[in-house]
């Protein structure tokens, strides 16, 4: 069953990507005031990074499971796994942006300057770059899956874009866990 018109896959990818990235950059750039989100107790804000690392680990698991499922020809398992992965990604991003807006910005790095400059910043930069690059690739793969019946998907670029999206996703989520460990475990 076709859920998205085939002719609209590319324009929808573009619109969704631009809107998503605009929201992310507006929140990260301090353009969204804290009054724009409902207040939460400090313990909720403090809990979000720990919830997000669990979400990241779960997403890594569902992406790998979905990748293995499609290699084995289990299309339904692959589809469910990738949709769960996308839901986890959306939940992670919503919680992250909420905390970022509610607290007025990113958490400062608590470790030594040398570690900050030569480990934390490069890891964080690659994590963010891959997360940003993943957005349009991910939307395109998902919209192709929604626009074509399963039997026709092998004749599209869904598999190629799906492999790219999954790879970017896995590395980004993994680096996000490293960022969490540096911020919340190593120097806690």
From TrEMBL:
<keyword id="KW-1133">Transmembrane helix</keyword>
<protein>
    <submittedName>
        <fullName>DUF420 domain-containing protein</fullName>
    </submittedName>
</protein>
<keyword id="KW-0812">Transmembrane</keyword>
<feature type="transmembrane region" description="Helical">
    <location>
        <begin position="164"/>
        <end position="183"/>
    </location>
</feature>
<feature type="transmembrane region" description="Helical">
    <location>
        <begin position="118"/>
        <end position="143"/>
    </location>
</feature>
<feature type="transmembrane region" description="Helical">
    <location>
        <begin position="50"/>
        <end position="68"/>
    </location>
</feature>
<feature type="transmembrane region" description="Helical">
    <location>
        <begin position="80"/>
        <end position="98"/>
    </location>
</feature>
<dbReference type="InterPro" id="IPR007352">
    <property type="entry name" value="DUF420"/>
</dbReference>
<keyword id="KW-0472">Membrane</keyword>
<dbReference type="Pfam" id="PF04238">
    <property type="entry name" value="DUF420"/>
</dbReference>
<feature type="transmembrane region" description="Helical">
    <location>
        <begin position="12"/>
        <end position="30"/>
    </location>
</feature>
């Amino acid at each position: 069953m076709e859920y998205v018109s085939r002719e609209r896959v590319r324009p929808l990818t573009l619109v969704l990507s631009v809107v998503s990235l605009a929201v992310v950059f507006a929140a990260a750039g301090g353009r969204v005031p804290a009054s724009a989100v409902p207040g939460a107790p400090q313990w909720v804000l403090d809990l979000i990074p720990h919830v997000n690392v669990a979400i990241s680990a779960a997403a890594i698991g569902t992406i790998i499971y979905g990748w293995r499922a499609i290699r084995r020809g289990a299309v339904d398992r692959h589809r469910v796994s990738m949709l769960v992965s996308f839901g986890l990604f959306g939940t992670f991003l919503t919680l992250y942006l909420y905390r970022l807006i509610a607290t007025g910005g990113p958490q400062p790095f608590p470790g030594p300057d040398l570690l900050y400059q030569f480990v934390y910043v490069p890891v964080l930069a690659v994590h963010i770059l891959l997360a940003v690059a993943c957005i349009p690739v991910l939307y395109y793969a998902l919209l192709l899956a929604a626009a074509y019946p399963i039997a026709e998907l092998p004749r599209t670029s869904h598999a190629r874009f799906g492999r790219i999206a999954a790879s970017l996703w896995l590395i980004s989520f993994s680096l996000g866990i490293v960022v969490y460990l540096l911020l919340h475990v190593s120097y806690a």
